[in-house]
Amino acid sequence: MGVEVSVEGLTKSFGSQNIWRDVSLTLPSGEVSALLGPSGTGKSVFLKTLIGLLHPEQGSVIIDGTDITQCSAKELYEIRKLFGVLFQDGALFGSMSLYDNIAFPLREHTKKKEDEVRRIVMEKIDLVGLAGAEDKLPGEISGGMRKRAGLARALVLDPQIILCDEPDSGLDPVRTAYISQLLIDINAQIDATILIVTHNINIARTIPDNIGMLFRKELVMFGPREQLLTSEQPVVKQFLSGDRFGPIGMSEEKDEAVAAAEAAMQAAGISGGGTKDDFTEIIPQVQPNPGMPERKAVGRHRQRVLELLPSLPANAQQAIRESMAMEDEVLATKRAHEQGQGQAGAAEWTTATATAPGSVAVADAPTDVYDFGGNDAPTQQWETPADAPTEQVDTTKKPRHGDGRS
Ligand SMILES: Nc1ncnc2c1ncn2[C@@H]1O[C@H](COP(=O)(O)OP(=O)(O)O)[C@@H](O)[C@H]1O
Ligand SMILES: [Mg+2]
């Protein structure tokens, strides 16, 4: 089971610049959590503080009973082995092949023989859909492939905690859906605790069990995903809708005069550019691919949320109840298909359920998994020249995560 990460009263500054203060949250073991927040609010700094790369002035980060803000370098070295980290830019060594990049943690942290290293590296390369590209240098491949190589490297030590800094940045909506699905599949397979730092609202809506948001140097909230998605807080609503009208400004807080001018513009029907999507309408969480075990954290998460329920706002309570009912329906149908049709049938469940008559919740579930970004998604994919090289290598050649879907 994944390891719980418990953060209490954490404060971080660089010189006189305070980044965030008094941040407290717990990443429940084996659950998937997301951290949202405008650019520059210190999400990456938070992630680096969790692995002891940056040192906070105050507070504690308890992992497996050890406060990593206080422990010795030797203890920290041991604790770090629990982590797999996908940094924002992939952080690959430019002069090393993908193979050597991915093998690096194994050669550094273990005494495994080269044939064992090769077995593990090739397994992870296969998992992230990079088979055939192992001899390439990071500079020779697309951003999406670098991201997946970074993820493969994060996975080689079988981490119990996985941190992903903007796994979606630089990826088109379809590739983003694949990498999100991969994270859910990995969670189902190894029950690792996962934290995803992201701006991507589709990820926030469909992947995590819990969501937190950093804003104005503070953690605005952290709780079950339904709580944030149904929040009435202006900053949360603005962030989710991607609108320029609201408390979040281009570079700093907006003053009252600006806020009043915006209110007048809105009243006059001028758009702030945001989506009109209703985020309070909870859509089903992404499920592990056919053939994967069920996520063990789902039951634990539900238990925890039920205990928490009375303390949550009424709209969050209602959203959670509806979402649980929806989940039960999706899971029951998925189980029925897997049992009734065996492995072969399981692989076909997408097609089968997508056409299941009169079953709205079920028909919706696979669609959300594969159709991230709505009808525009595939179009955007082909229009992204920077990602062009990716197409030849992954999905067509190794449709590991595309099984039964084409
Ligand atoms: N090593 C560092 N030294 C000084 N300032 C830093 C350092 N790392 C990040 N910062 C500052 O911390 C703030 C938050 O950065 P970051 O965590 O990268 O934001 P986010 O990931 O939310 O976009 C920024 O103002 C950035 O300039
Ligand atoms: Mg960042």
UniProtKB/TrEMBL annotation:
Residues 394-406 have a biased composition (Basic and acidic residues). It comes from the Bacteria. Transmembrane segments: none annotated. Residues 5-241 form the ABC transporter domain. Pfam families: ABC_tran (PF00005). GO terms for molecular function: ATP binding; ATP hydrolysis activity. Gene3D superfamilies: P-loop containing nucleotide triphosphate hydrolases. The keyword Acetylation does not apply. Residues 365-406 are annotated as: Disordered. Keywords: ATP-binding, Nucleotide-binding, Transport. InterPro entries: AAA+_ATPase (IPR003593), ABC_transporter-like_ATP-bd (IPR003439), ABC_transporter-like_CS (IPR017871), P-loop_NTPase (IPR027417). This is ABC transporter ATP-binding protein. It comes from Gordonia desulfuricans.
